[in-house]
Amino acid sequence: MNPYQKKKRWKLFLLLFAGLIGTASVFYSDFFVKKMEREEGTQFLLWIKVAEQRMKMYDNEQLSEVFETIKKNNKMDVIITRTDGSIYLWDGLDTTKTLYPDNKTKQYDSVYFARQLSKMKEQHKPAKMKGINDEELIAYYKDSIILTQLRFFPYIQLGVIALFLITAYVGFSAARRAERDQEFVGMAKETAHQLGTPISSLMAWVELIKTRFDAEEDPLVAEMENDIQRLEIIADRFSKIGSKPILEDHVVHAVIKGFVQYFKVRTSDKINFVLTGDTQVRAMLSGPLFDWVIENLLKNAVNAIDNEGTITINIIENLAKEEVFIDITDTGKGIPRSKFDTVFQPGYTTRKRGWGLGLTLTKRIVENYHRGQIFVKDSELGKGTTFRIILKSSITYEPTTNTGLPSVV
């Protein structure tokens, strides 16, 4: 199984596990909230019974002390209204507002009372009670501050935990990515170092062959020299990994044409290479590294073609954004749409042999070193695939005010 598929499954498992913990936490908190609601409901009914008795025996000082004690321990806001909806009594609300308009020390706020009463009606069913002279009254109450806070606590807790997990994941991922990059850079530089000795030996052997067998003009020896030069370029590529490459102004068509001419000689004659598009557009490139990009894309295109087919490279200039589009299209197997992003991940390959690093390196070179973009533009199973590279053009275009109409001199 692809390591990224395993990683994806583990992420999914951990996400489900975290969701299970979060759900359990919410349900557990909801259990306590409902229990507290029942207790507050019981306290409210007790408050009503005591209030009724106090209204009947308002001159009983002993009962008044009991009522005051219950009030101190009661954290609920209560409003009692008459049957016509007018407010009769209240308790626990804002002390800066009063129900009695004739009290000059406080300001009566009818809007405040109406708003509080509306909240109470939404939260709980009212209870009937008797007032002085057995007057019919209706009592309302709302949740205490503690209960209200407890309702939101699980979600706040989950939010804090999620924020912590995201921060930890991003931090560990960045550290792991940096560690992996260092390993990759070290391996690349060691590969370049190991290639140095055999390449030097091969160069010496070619010179010896040319001298001993008088093969200065032999085409086979010339091709051997081309391959040795290619090995030197490859070693130079590996040595540049991890270092900031030097970008130079190049004609994109000329760079790609030079590599295609080298590559197609070493590919099956049944595969046709077509290079089209703008021949003058320029971009800032690192020659050896950009050749590597084209090589990886062409190799993937060749591997996607079973027997015979065509690989088309089209260079397009986007004048509006001052960009260069390079589309590489093959007539191969195609890629499922679900794999458009996966193909750039390390280890992804459709071949039995292969490390699955070609497109990963390609993406790194284009995006990190050339500040460009690369993606699968289009693909259809059985018909082929198009990869698009976007580079910044090194040619700056100035806007013109010329309308194309003749001017008066």
TrEMBL record:
Gene3D superfamilies: Histidine kinase-like ATPase, C-terminal domain (3.30.565.10). It is an enzyme of class 2 (transferase). Residues 190-395 form the Histidine kinase domain. Its EC number is 2.7.13.3. It catalyses: ATP + protein L-histidine = ADP + protein N-phospho-L-histidine. The keyword Membrane applies. The chain crosses the membrane at residues 152-172. GO terms for molecular function: kinase activity. It comes from the Bacteria. Keywords: ATP-binding, Kinase, Membrane, Nucleotide-binding, Phosphoprotein, Transferase, Transmembrane, Transmembrane helix, Two-component regulatory system. The keyword Kinase applies. Signal peptide: none annotated. It holds the Pfam family HATPase_c. This is histidine kinase. It comes from Pedobacter ureilyticus.
